[in-house]
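Chapter review. Work through the record for ABC transporter permease before attempting the end-of-chapter questions.
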Amino acid sequence: MNWFRYLLRRLGQYVVVLFGVSLIIFVISRLSGDPVALMVGMDAPEELRESIRSDLGLDEPLIVQYALFMRDAIVLNFGESISMAPGEPAGQLVLSRVVPTIQLTAVAVFFAFGIGVPVGVISAIRQGEYADIGGMTFALLGQSVPSFWVGLMLILFVAVPIDFFPLAGAGSIRHLLLPGLTLSFFMMASIARLTRSNLADVLDEEFVKTARSKGISDLRVYGSHALRNAFIPVLTYAGVQIAYLFGGAVITEQIFAYPGMGRLAIQAIYSRDFPVIQAVVFFAAIMVIIVNFTIDLLYLKLDPRISYGGDR
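Structure tokens for ABC transporter permease:
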């Protein structure tokens, strides 16, 4: 029953978020200009333009237009592409790019945790030693350099001299490695610093000293006791950063000519294809909501003191 109430409460919050996103999309699309002028041009006869407005419902009051927009958005119908792929449903066009973006984000998250957490753990265990200094220097650099510079350096010094790494495109795991590393660089460095900071604090706690006094191995102390408690703030930060990865993918996908949602969004903005832009924003919001919900469930797994009903 607690699980059911928790699920309903979270779903209710997500519905409110999607409602706010849809309202923002609707308002911005109406403030950005007349979509009919983009479809037929400024020189088209007024009769033709009025006919198209009537077909699209643009001659209705704004509240009616919003109701029609929400009705279509519920079934992921955002109209047809105006300029990028005229006549093709914008929702289907974005859906074809969702999977590549999810794959790229998954690889970036794998790099961020697979490298950032071990670096942070080693730095916390070896505080003040060369391993700690080297790990935190790497973390500082990772948080200082922009992602586009990292991508360009990887292309120049890795992809160009080594044929194994493709310069652009998609289709295999090799196409994901360099873009994924580029996208994960800032998050990787941040996770390393946060893991080091939290784990160093937890290692000074009494329950860790007690576990050591009982003769429990260091591996079990670090893994089962210390790291599990230190990992909750890291997971919180990661949930926020994964949401930002969808936005950061715009730059990375442009650099590597990767056919994902970010590159599609840039192309749609340049061509003023508003149905496609609306679909990209809506799908991105759904993906962020799924990530946040997954993080909430992981909290419950890591910390049994967190209850579904909110009671301790």
